[in-house]
Write a structure and sequence with these properties.
mainly alpha; about 0% strand
Length: about 220
C-alpha cells in the first residue's frame, strides 16, 4: 500500500504541476503577443519539465520558467519563426500540386512528402534537443534530424501522443487550459531523455572501449 499510495501521490503532484505549467505557457505566450511568445514559452516549458525529471532539488517553477523564457527569447523565436515558415511553405507547396499535370504531381508530390517527413522530425525533436544540449544553432537542427531519423519509432509514439491529446481536447475542452501543451511536453521530454541517455551511454562505452584498446596497444 505504501508503494501504491506513493504512486498516487506522485501522480497527483505531477498533474498539479502540469496544470500550472500549462497556465504559465499560455500566460507567457500572451505576454509575447502570441507569435513571439509561443516558442520561448515552449522552451521554458520543456526546460522546467526536464529539470523536474532529472533532479530531486526543489526550485521555484515560476522563476525557472521565467529564467528560461527570458534567456532563450531571441534564439527560440528564430526557431519558432522558421518552423512557422516551414509549415506555411509546405502547405502552399502541396496545395499547388493540384494545378499540375499527373506526372509532375507524382514527382513533386514525392519530393514534398519526403521534405515534409524530414521537417516533421526536426519539429518534433527541436525543443527537447534545444533544452538538453548546449551547442550552435545549426547543430540543434542537425541533432534533431539525426536523432529523429535514428529513432523513428519514438517519433511515431510522439505523433500518437499529440493525436491522442488533440482527440481528448476535442472531447473535453476543459483540458485546453490545463493539459493541452504541458502533458504532451512531459511525455515528449520523457521519451527524449530516454533517447539522450541511450546516446550518452553508447558514447561513454565507445570512449571506454577506445581507451582500453589504446592501453592494450601501448602494452
Amino acid at each position: 500500500m505504501d508503494g501504491f499510495s506513493g504512486w498516487i501521490n506522485g501522480t497527483c503532484t505531477w498533474l498539479m504541476k502540469l496544470a500550472i505549467y500549462n497556465v504559465l505557457w499560455f500566460l507567457f505566450t500572451i505576454i509575447g503577443l502570441g507569435i513571439f511568445g509561443w516558442a520561448p514559452a515552449t522552451v521554458a516549458l520543456f526546460s522546467v519539465i526536464r529539470k523536474r525529471l532529472t533532479t530531486d532539488k526543489e526550485f521555484s517553477d515560476f522563476k525557472e520558467f521565467f529564467y528560461h523564457y527570458k534567456k532563450s527569447f531571441f534564439q527560440s523565436n528564430i526557431i519558432g519563426i522558421l518552423l512557422l515558415l516551414g509549415c506555411i511553405s509546405i502547405f502552399y507547396s502541396i496545395s499547388s500540386l493540384l494545378y499540375l499535370d499527373q506526372s509532375m504531381m507524382i514527382l513533386l508530390g514525392t519530393i514534398f512528402f519526403m521534405i515534409s517527413i524530414l521537417f516533421g522530425i526536426v519539429a518534433i525533436f527541436i525543443f527537447p534537443v534545444y533544452t538538453h544540449y548546449n551547442t550552435t544553432f545549426q547543430n540543434y537542427i542537425r541533432y534533431s534530424l539525426m536523432i529523429g531519423l535514428a529513432n523513428l519509432h519514438y517519433g511515431l509514439y510522439i505523433i500518437l501522443i499529440l493525436g491522442l491529446m488533440l482527440f481528448l481536447t476535442n472531447m473535453f475542452p476543459g483540458l485546453l487550459l490545463f493539459y493541452t501543451v504541458s502533458a504532451p511536453a512531459y511525455l515528449m521530454m520523457q521519451i527524449s531523455l530516454k533517447i539522450f541517455n541511450s546516446i550518452e551511454e553508447k558514447d561513454n562505452n565507445r570512449i571506454g572501449t577506445d581507451s582500453l584498446l589504446n592501453t592494450q596497444q601501448t602494452q
